[in-house]
Specification:
The protein is an alpha/beta fold and about 375 residues long. It is about 45% helix and about 15% strand. Strand 5, helix 5 and strand 6 form a beta-alpha-beta unit.
Length: about 375
């Protein structure tokens, strides 16, 4: 069975791992090697990807030109312009590839509306599986567009119950086509190696620290985190803050921490290959995102046995944490401060029990569980 993945990207987003690990699971877990898996490289995005090299995943290049190096990055408008450029740059190349190779399945991540239109031109023997995350904004034009063209979609997967319920409620697609498929966030072999490295790691931060991880963009709402830490520092001066990630808001956030006179206590560490060595030594993980689906770093924090404080944002944190962590009202500074005080006031046994429950709950995010569910969908 021939399976292609198409998931063009131009910045470090968590979906990259979701794609490579999904492809890897189809190669790694079947007893018989029945899946021939390939990733389609649209703009040079898969060059030098460690997961692809390590797992020997086949890559099909649509072009010799690395368009990724020339696309505008940063902000909502620029990202939309970039995705339009990717779509039109690859329209005929992708159509010709699919019609020539005729894979049994084409699995699409990151792009939604545009690929639906593109499926009209594919060989009907190729079944298209579309991954939708978040809550798509529905207006009358988009609704009609989806109704007309979504008939060509074989199945739709979404990573959370909320997205699933949203799609069912809005009757965008037939209920029989929609499935919940948790992202393959956990690779236990990789985690064991990185945790071992973390156990021998001497942290450059000598004080107790809180940690947050993510792209430095509007979505992740690090502005709220820094304002929170400023208030916190007056009450609990023993803490420092570690922020791991890169993005277009980095300079703004550094300037904000400088303006609030906390720059020396806020450590911007940029992109890190191994976040676990920082997570396992943290006092607490804090997620301030305005939206997620489901939130890769929450799963990684739970795997690292770190207490979690998260915004109760759409669309995934509540499903993971429920009553075994600390959820604060989305974008609410006062409520975040209260939740931190609540965390400090929780006895150690309750925190330990919460960690155990969270670890059980995140098992569905393993590569193997993802493989089992995906196999059911494509078979």
């Amino acid at each position: 069975m021939k399976i292609f993945y198409w998931s063009p990207f131009f910045s470090n987003v968590a979906t990259i791992k979701a794609v490579t690990r999904s492809a890897t699971s189809l190669i790694k877990f079947p007893r018989e090697k029945k899946y021939k898996v390939s990733l389609i490289d649209a703009i040079g995005e898969w060059e030098q990807n460690e997961d692809i090299i390590k797992n020997k995943i086949s890559v099909i290049k649509l072009s010799d030109t690395n368009l990724k190096n020339y696309l505008p990055k940063g902000g909502f408008l620029k990202s939309r312009i970039s995705y339009l450029a990717i779509f039109f740059w690859n329209f005929f190349k992708l159509k010709n590839l699919i019609n020539k190779e005729v894979p049994d399945y084409l699995i699409i991540h990151l792009m939604t509306s545009l690929p639906i239109f593109l499926t009209t031109f594919f060989n009907p023997k190729t079944k298209v599986i579309l991954r939708i995350s978040g809550l798509p904004k529905i207006n009358i034009i988009r609704y009609l567009f989806w109704k007309i063209y979504a008939k060509k979609i074989y199945k739709v997967t979404c990573p959370t119950k909320k997205t699933y319920n949203f799609l069912i409620k809005n009757k965008i697609l037939d209920k029989e086509k929609i499935f919940i498929l948790s992202d393959p966030i956990i690779d236990m072999k990789e985690f064991s190696l990185k945790k071992k490295e973390g156990n021998n790691f001497v942290s450059p931060i000598k004080q107790k620290y809180l940690i947050s991880i993510g792209r430095l963009t509007k979505q992740k709402n690090f502005k709220l985190l820094i304002n929170f830490f400023n208030k916190l520092s007056n009450k609990y001066p023993e803490y420092e803050l570690v922020i791991i990630g890169e993005g277009e808001d980095e300079l703004k956030l550094k300037n904000l921490s400088r303006k609030l006179n906390i720059r020396k206590k806020v450590h911007f560490l940029g992109y890190q290959k191994n976040v676990f060595k920082y997570l396992i030594n943290a006092e607490c993980f804090i997620l301030t995102s305005l939206w997620e689906d489901p939130g890769f770093v929450i799963v990684e924090a739970a795997l690292s046995n770190v207490p979690i404080i998260s915004s109760n944002c759409p669309n995934g944190p509540e499903e993971i944490i429920e009553n075994n962590g600390y959820l604060f009202q989305n974008n609410n500074l006062k409520n975040l401060l209260r939740k931190f005080d609540e965390f400090l006031g929780t006895n150690k046994n309750t925190i330990y029990q919460n960690k155990l429950i969270l670890k059980k709950r995140i098992k569905k995010f393993s590569m193997y569980q993802h493989y089992k569910k995906l196999s059911e969908i494509i078979n």
